[in-house]
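Re-run with default settings, no changes from the original entry. Doing this only to confirm the output is reproducible before filing.
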Amino acid sequence: MTSTPANVPNLRIGLGYDSHRLGAGGPLRIGGIDVPAELHAIGHSDADVLLHAITDALLGAICAADIGRLFPDTSDVNADRDSRDFVQAALDKVHQRGMGIVNLDCVILAEHPKMAPHIDAMRAHVADMLGVDADRVSIKAKTGEGVGEIGTGKSIATRVVVLLAGR
């Protein structure tokens, strides 16, 4: 077994990704807020694509089991479950390891609806959930430029990178 040298900072990076098909009937829940839309994300829980990716980024940074293993979509307990529960469970594990969030960088990939009017509310909500200042949470949106499942409006995806530091 090897050990980490004492001069290596206690920093961890986690990467999260999630995607969901889109179907008729809104609203679309992203980042814990309901975005007015004629579509919603289809999933076992509330299908909050951003919170799912944040959960996986947090878990990945501490080398813990991913969201699918902790909250399987085969369990009735997770049916229509609020994704904030997933984030809180991951955050608890981060804190149990003596780590704290330095910052998150999030990208929402969606053709419609336009995310810009909702980004500030998402940032504030995510920051509040995580117990960090909003200036530590970056959220931006990109379209698919008409290409692929995202570009044709059939799906939505997110990518999240989180940096943790030991206390």
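The longest strand covers residues 11-24. The helical segments are 49-61, 67-70, 84-96, 119-130, 148-151.
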